[in-house]
């Protein structure tokens, strides 16, 4: 089984679905199934690593979402599972995210390090 | 029997983007060349195979549904299964079950099966290559 790199670039797409971010969820499931898998957060998806996100309160009429997406916690859980989560430093900085804003356990890389990261994996799935 | 297998992951709902057309073209080309193909339909792509899809007349052109004879995506998927059979290769189309449930999209044409992420991983591991065609 080869090493897989999931590159997540599009942020907050589909988060109304029960899985929250569907690619992070898929990553979690694939890890549970035995995959050797890593994640790279780039572009707007670096905001997934911003701690303290709160998407609660969504309701239409009396239909309330009682389990809102908690993307930062989802990323932390993936890291706890043993998945290496990489984040592009420049993308975070350009969006005003300081180190203190980000969850623990991330592996920060520079843009120029992306080719090397890709080279370290057998499959690259760019979502 | 084919000695090569490719896996394709797709996510787009029917008709929303050219991604679906591209994916089906790739699947068709691989089958036509005698390769096995695994498809993992995730998110809105589970709607591609819904049996209830029906063509409609086009009032702008003044044509009836019969005159238009416009294929829906379920027709194309069914045709791909027929192509695989004719070529003696395997098309394994897995619809993500949880995505199906959230969309009420469980009534399919003959061919696809219900599955989950582990099926995608297993298919990828058994393939020469895997192509992800995401929704952006």
How does this structure look, described?
The complex is a heterodimer of chains A (127) and B (136). By secondary structure, chain A is α/β, with parallel strands linked by helices. In chain A, strands 6-5-2-1-7 form a five-stranded parallel β-sheet. In chain A, helix 1 packs parallel to helix 2. The longest helix of chain A has 11 residues. Chain A starts with a strand and ends with a strand. The model of chain A has no long low-confidence stretch (mean pLDDT 95). Chain B is α/β, with parallel strands linked by helices. Helices cover 37% and strands 19% of the residues of chain B. Chain B has five helices and five strands. Chain B has a five-stranded parallel β-sheet with strand order 4-3-2-1-5, with helices on both faces. The radius of gyration of chain B is 15 Å and the shape is globular. The model of chain B has no long low-confidence stretch (mean pLDDT 95). Chains A and B meet through helix 1 and strand 7 of A and helix 4 and helix 5 of B.
Tell me, rounded to a whole number, the average pLDDT of chain A. Answer: 95
Output the strand order for the largest sheet of chain B.
Answer: 4-3-2-1-5
Class computed from helices, strands and strand pairing of chain A: alpha/beta
Helix content of chain B: 25-40%
Low-confidence stretches of chain A: none
Number of strands of chain B: 5
Roughly what fraction of the amino acids of chain A lie in strands? 15-25%
Element-level helix/strand string of chain A: EHEEEHEHEHE
- Strand percentage of chain B lies at 15-25%
What profile does the largest beta sheet of chain A have?
5 strands, parallel
Summing up helix and strand content along with how strands pair, one would put the structural category of chain B as: alpha/beta
Mean pLDDT of chain B: 95
- State the helix count of chain B: 5
Major beta sheet, strand line-up of chain A: 6-5-2-1-7
The total of helices of chain A stands at 4
